[in-house]
Amino acid sequence: MYTDFSLRILIYLGSKNRSELSTIQEISGKYGISKNHLMKVSHELGKAGYIETVRGRRGGIRLALAPEQINIGAVVRRMEDDFYLVECFQPSGGRCPISPVCRLKGALGRALQAYLQVLDEYTLQDLLVNTEDLRVLLQLNENISPVRTADAPLPGYERHSPPAGHETAEAPPE
Amino acid sequence: MYTDFSLRILIYLGSKNRSELSTIQEISGKYGISKNHLMKVSHELGKAGYIETVRGRRGGIRLALAPEQINIGAVVRRMEDDFYLVECFQPSGGRCPISPVCRLKGALGRALQAYLQVLDEYTLQDLLVNTEDLRVLLQLNENISPVRTADAPLPGYERHSPPAGHETAEAPPE
Lengths: 174, 174
Description:
Chain A is mostly helical. Chain A contains 6 helices and 2 strands; from the N terminus they run H-H-H-E-E-H-H-H.
């Protein structure tokens, strides 16, 4: 779940202009997922250096790195806390009695490496090649209108019309 | 958990003589895992044709195939019901709004294939190359004594001394 939500936050932020801020409430509304979970995940993404938080009443989060600098394998390694198909992969080592001699560990370890190596081939930029499609489904282009009928009104944010530049609907530069 | 327990049951049964029967209670005691979970998992393993059940008071389970005929990738594909690092991998498809255009699915799908392809290289026999080490840790050689002090006494089974041939402590033939 952490990994899923992490990747969704990154895709969401990457679909906006690089400097544009998003709120957890807004992302929560768009994906229909719990604000509490998103808050925990965005805290972790912040600690990992992938996103940055601008505090204050008109604050929010945005990518701290260019999308091509965010490696998907690295994000998954960092955010996923349950690669443990079997007990002996737990950080504690588990308590399976055959663990010291079991050949399964080696097989599953090789398989996990193969999995992550595929993800290492991707950056966030590769997931944003079709930003315009993403923007449509995330209803990001609808922000263009100064009058929001707001599927998820953001208290404290939306009393004002959106900041200038909001309507330039392109992927981050570089 | 299903996959973990499946593989452990198969390794346990494969560490015994091919014809020898084991009970869920015995396996539960050896691994220290829930009898209820093991019963569900062994039911699935039976449905999949990997193990067979001999009914009756002295009944139990054993491998239905030679260890080299049991492919680990196939077992994991069959038993694992949660490859869903992200919601859109659920059989229902989930309800993530960007699912129709999201490039992440392709990346994670390729990664999962790479994972399973590694496991396809192994059969149960490859995990049993050190059967004697497994038998020691699973305390299978201790059955040799007709007087069991029994870490997990099996009501209904152990009133009688172990069947003849119990003491031949080798890996399945073929």
